[in-house]
Amino acid sequence: MPCGRRLRRAHALLRAPALLLLTLPGAWPPATGATATRLSELPAAWVDDGGQPFDLRTLEGHAVVLTMAYATCHRVCPMTLRRLQQVQSEYDRRGTRAEFVVIGYDPDNDDAAAWRQYRRSRHLTRSNWHFLIGAREAVEQTARRLGFEFWRYDQHVVHDSRVLYFDERGTLVATGETTELESTKR
User: Fold this and answer.
1) Three-state SS at 32
2) Residue 89 domain-assigned?
3) Is residue 129 part of a domain?
4) For 63-106, how does the pLDDT look when each residue is reduced to its tens digit (9 = 90+)?
5) Choice between 186 and 123, residue whose per-residue pLDDT is larger
6) 8 A C-beta contact, residue 182 and residue 131
7) How do 98-104 and 129-133 pair as beta strands?
């Protein structure tokens, strides 16, 4: 394996445990006068991949790892979800728990059935993984509030890879992201 690839791989392996530490209960002091984004400030009307209503506020009391994706993405989203699986493995190794939330970028095409298939095909069936569908306005508002950049171009959704970490109080405590935007073809 070339040296550059080994270094990138080592960096990726070290990154997940470091980000995990940021979401452990008590890792951050209570926010005093901070204007940090909280889960409770985001739109509340979502539907999960089982077709059931889902409110992000129900996750308070748990560490939350959140990203945005779309079910037919073939490039960025699979890499992001693999990274989340690594974070899940690190939580498991430490005996701690987090809720993993994936909000769909494309509510016109990513319905509950599409996300159920996505979960099954990628073995993401644990109950602490939540794949959410929202109205276009809710998706766009959430993306803006959390700093996700995306837009549609022909049959593409151009987007970045970003992972957000919320503590058990529902307060945003850390983000991880790539530096370049990528295009994914449908």
Assistant:
1) coil
2) yes
3) yes
4) 999 999 887 777 788 888 888 999 999 999 999 999 999 999 88
5) 123
6) no
7) parallel
Write out the two tokens for 37. 């984004």
3-class SS string, 60-113: CCCEEEEEEECCCCCCHHHHHHHHHHHHHHHHHHHCCCEEEEEEECCCCCCCHH
Only one residue has tokens 């509340």, namely 44
Structure tokens, 51? 């077709």
For residue 38 the two structure tokens come to: 């909280």
Query: Whole-model pTM?
Result: 0.75
Task: Report how many domains make up the chain.
Answer: 1
Residue 134 lies in a domain: yes
CA 126 to chain centre: 15
List all residues 6 or more positions away from 79 whose beta carbon is below 8 Å from its beta carbon: 161
CB of 148 closer than 8 Å to CB of 159: yes
Main-chain phi, psi angles of 185, to 5 degrees? -95, 140
d(CA 156, CA 138): 20
H or E segment and range at residue 38: none
What CATH code is carried by the domain that includes residue 137? 3.40.30.10
Rounded CA-CA distance 178/167 in Å is: 22
